[in-house]
Amino acid sequence: MALPIIANSVPKYDAVVPSTKKKIRFRPFLVKEQKTLLIAYESKDKTAMIRAMIDTIESCVADEIDVYKLSTFDIDYLFAQIRAKSVGENTQLLFDCNECDTQNEVNVDISKARVDIPTDIESVIKITDTISVKMKYPDYGYFIKNMQIFDDSKSSVESLTDIVVSCIDTVLTEDEAIKIADEPREEVITFIESLTSEQFEKINKFIESLPKIKQEVKFKCVNCQHENVRTLEGLEDFF
């Protein structure tokens, strides 16, 4: 005799996709999805963690959205909201006091995480009088296809180059618009390496302004009573 599949009535919640401002509906994740997330987390494999997050969002969001086309901070934010409604909005985290190094257990409401998108950053950057680059926010689909990005042995310069490649959408000349996704990676890197320091700095300013999921955490040290402020930021702090 086959066991029944339980058709639970699960609550639905609203969230807003940070980059598009689109309102979506989602449900908490189920035990099978939580199991996949825990396996990915315990593996310490960044690619597995990202895939697990994306698959969870695809399963839990009721609306039709292409999660692979969402920006990295959209995915991080939506996952934080789903996780908060699935296993509890409050989680206990350990922080060292800035003053006396005592470890403090702090209650954090992860549902209050936010994404601030700058409004004063230009997405089209002029490189020369005839060449510009159109920038975009990176997505995890690109990172999954280029897993070498997660190689911990890479230098900081190589890692920055990878991020720049993921953020350039189009190279604009007087005659054409060249989609970076259609060009060999080696040629894209050659283009980047041909820039002067001043030209590269213009692009780097966009990279430095990339939105991230953030949450400020304040706590008073149990030992010395010092008032501490910490900021949770990015995927690893919220997974």
Concise overview:
This protein is an alpha+beta fold. Helices cover 36% and strands 23% of the residues. A four-stranded antiparallel β-sheet has the order 6-7-8-9. Strands 5-10-11 form a three-stranded antiparallel β-sheet.
Describe this structure in words.
The structure is a single chain. The protein has helices at residues 31-43, 46-60, 72-87, 140-145, 156-167, 185-193, 197-208, 235-238, and strands at 13-16, 23-26, 90-96, 103-109, 114-115, 124-126, 132-135, 168-172, 177-179, 213-220, 227-233. The chain has 239 residues and is an alpha+beta fold. Helix 1 runs antiparallel to helix 2 and helix 2 (46-60) packs across helix 3 (72-87). The chain is globular, with a radius of gyration of 21 Å.
Summarize this structure as a short list of keywords or feature phrases.
239 residues; alpha+beta; 4-stranded antiparallel β-sheet; 3-stranded antiparallel β-sheet; globular
What is the approximate shape?
globular
How far from one another are the termini? 39 Å
Radius of gyration: 21 Å
Structural class: alpha+beta
Order of helices and strands: EEHHHEEEEEHHEEHHEEH
Tally of DSSP β-strands = 11
The domain count comes to 2
Which sequence of strands runs across the widest sheet? 6-7-8-9
Give the helix level as a range of percent.
25-40%
Query: Biggest β-sheet: count, sense, barrel?
Result: 4 strands, antiparallel
Count of helical regions: 8
Low-confidence stretches: none
Beta-strand portion reads 15-25%
Average of pLDDT: 89
